Structures are given as structure tokens and as C-alpha cells.
Amino acid sequence: MSQKKVRKALIPAAGFGTRLFPATKIVKKELFPIIDRDGRAKPIIMAIVEEAINAGIEEVGIVVQPEDRELFTDLFKAPPKPELFKKLSPENQKYSQYLQDLGKQITILIQTEQEGYGHAVYCAKDWVDQESFLLLLGDHVYTTNTERSCAKQMLDVYQQFEQNIIGLTIMSAEIIHKAGCVTGVWQQPNSLLKITEIYEKPSLEYARQNLKVNGMKKDEFLGVFGMYILESKIFDLLEEDINHNYRFKGEFQLTTCLDKLRQEQATLGYLVQGQYFDTGMPLFYRQTMIDFYQNSKN
């Protein structure tokens, strides 16, 4: 097994949260509360950071809008006001210190203009600095019933193959138009896929004609799980799109560059043993509040 290690994780959190308006007029969607497996009410972004850190990641970069820097800095790096700290239980006072210790591993990065998910990733180019990195969505949380967390599974696969890894999940025909979708050839049945196409939010007709994978049931497809491990080559491709103003639906997208990446570098899809919860839409967020804690306990 390779000794090459992924040290950094990136979490873009600079979107407007339009699908959760008007709540996001007041609270950033990444700061919405969930009940985690430890029974604590915590902001979504904290659960994502912990997913990365607990898997062995050493540094986490969070991309935010300029006016939100203080919010995220306060969450991870500032102690509570003295009058609040005094009212905390001894256990929560200890947890407050844990938060500040966690903050030492976090760097706040800025996206000055909101030009799409790919653009947000590109804003971390200098911070990533030629390393491979774990990329996590800022509105997804993850659970698994296995001994290894979802992020740890991804890191282990990368350590074995040293290729770009895209986390995958099985998606039904009803939701495929809301996600990235891939096709390819199984290298290990129901586990590892050599990716031959990546497509952003396909129509069902397009998916049926072009994105079917051998051995899968009718109208089941492989969608993006919301986790990636990428080589730094992705920044060159994003930069090319930005410099030439190549947009998809008005924004600089990651998925179109991922498809270019897999044409230049070997890219594997890994069918993650776990479940993601998308908190970026009202009814999905509601379901997360119901199911996430219970699934985490099982």
C-alpha cells in the first residue's frame, strides 16, 4: 500500500442557500443545527469537519463569503462569552475547549464572488498547494454502519490506488436530475468503477441512454455521493474554464472539469458503504433531522 497521504480536506461553504430561503436570510445553511451521533445539537459544518478530522485529515479549509468570515471564525476559534461559559455544564465547558482545539486545524478561505461550485473549489488552489485533497460538500452529512467512516473508506481507497476517487451512491430515476451521475466499467463488482463519463444533472432520458452500468437494476444509476479525493490537476482544469469563461448554466461547475480530469488522469468511482444526507433543501433537511441521529446510532 502506498505511503502517500491525503492531509487536507476542503469544504466549500460560500453559497447563498437559495433553496432554504428565507431561513438563509438570517442563518447560513452550513450553520443549521442537526443532532449528531453524540446527542449534541451542532451546526452542520461541524459534523462535516469532524467527519474529515476523525478520518485522519490534518487540515481543513472552509471556503466562505467575505462577510461570513467572522461567523465561521467565531464558531471554531473564539471562546464563548464569559457569561455564557459560566452557565455551561462542566461537560460543555470541556467541549468548548475541544472546539477551539479543532479550530487550530481549520483555515478560513474566501470566495469574493459567488460564481459556482467549481469556482469555490478553485479559490482553495493556493491553500491546497499541489497536494491531493479530500473534497466534501458543505451541506451533506454522512453515516455508515461499518467500522470505517465514509471519509475513511475514501482515504483507504486512495491510499491503495493513488488515483482520483469519486464517492458514489445508488440513485433512483426520480432524483438523478438533481445530481451528478457517472457510468463506467466495474473493476470490483459493486465496489470500484473505472469511470468513463461524468454528467451533471442528466435528464432521465439521457441517463437511460448513456449512463447505465452493467448489473444494475432498471432505472437505478450511480450518482455522486458528495465526497471526492482529487489530485491538484483539477485546479488547472478549473482555471482553464474560468479564464475562457466556460460556464454550465451560468456558473463554473466542478462536474464538467471532473469529466475532463478523468480523460487525463485515471479516475475511480467508489461505491461508499454508507448514506449521505442532503441538508440543502427544505424537505431533505427535515428528513435529516428525523433520520440522521438514529442512523448514526445503529
| Spatial gap, N to C terminus | 31 Å
CATH superfamily: Spore Coat Polysaccharide Biosynthesis Protein SpsA, Chain A
Q: Would you state the CATH class?
A: Alpha Beta
Q: Tally the beta strands.
A: 13
Low-confidence stretches: none
The portion of residues assigned to helices is: 25-40%
Lateral arrangement of strands in the main beta sheet: 8-11-9-10-12
Number of structural domains: 1
Helical/strand content category? alpha/beta
The main β sheet shows up as:
5 strands, mixed, barrel
**Contiguous helical run count:** 11
In the CATH scheme, what's the topology name? Spore Coat Polysaccharide Biosynthesis Protein SpsA, Chain A
Question: Can you lay out the helices and strands and say which pair or pack?
Answer:
Layout: E1 8-12, E2 33-35, E3 41-43, H1 44-54, E4 59-64, H2 69-77, H3 82-87, H4 90-103, E5 106-110, H5 117-122, H6 125-128, E6 133-136, E7 140-143, H7 150-161, E8 164-172, E9 180-188, E10 192-200, H8 204-210, E11 220-230, H9 233-243, H10 254-264, E12 267-271, E13 275-278, H11 282-297
Parallel strand pairs: 1-4, 1-6, 4-5, 8-12
Antiparallel strand pairs: 2-3, 6-11, 7-13, 8-11, 9-10, 9-11, 10-12
Keywords, separated by commas or semicolons:
298 residues, alpha/beta, Spore Coat Polysaccharide Biosynthesis Protein SpsA, Chain A, five-stranded mixed β-barrel, two-stranded antiparallel ribbon, 36% helix, EC 2.7.7.9, transferase, nucleotidyltransferase, GalU_uridylyltTrfase_bac/arc, UTP--glucose-1-phosphate uridylyltransferase
